[in-house]
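Title: Prediction job returns without error message
Component: structure pipeline
Severity: low
Priority: P3
Assignee: unassigned

Description:
Job completed but the reporter wants confirmation the result is attached to the right record. Sequence as submitted:
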Amino acid sequence: MAFTPPPDKIMFEIYKDVSRNGDYQVIYFTELDDHTREVEINRAANGEHVFDGFIRNRGKDQAKLVLGSIIERLNKGEPVQTADIEKELQPFTP
């Protein structure tokens, strides 16, 4: 089996999951496996879109920590503006 390098960027979306509990979630589209892809994409598509974009694969762990912090703040009811998200993710975007 040949080695396939990971993509240089990861596509993500922040959304509010209105069909389940109303919590904010983040989905990393380019990291979904075949078993959960359809379910996860449908869940995001049925939610309320908040923000989407790309993060670089290099440094993705730090970027995911930042995204996790944003999700936590949203779920606590803190108003987080699109400009704030863009600013916080700027060091991790391609």
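Comment from assignee: result matches the submitted record. The longest strand covers residues 48-56.
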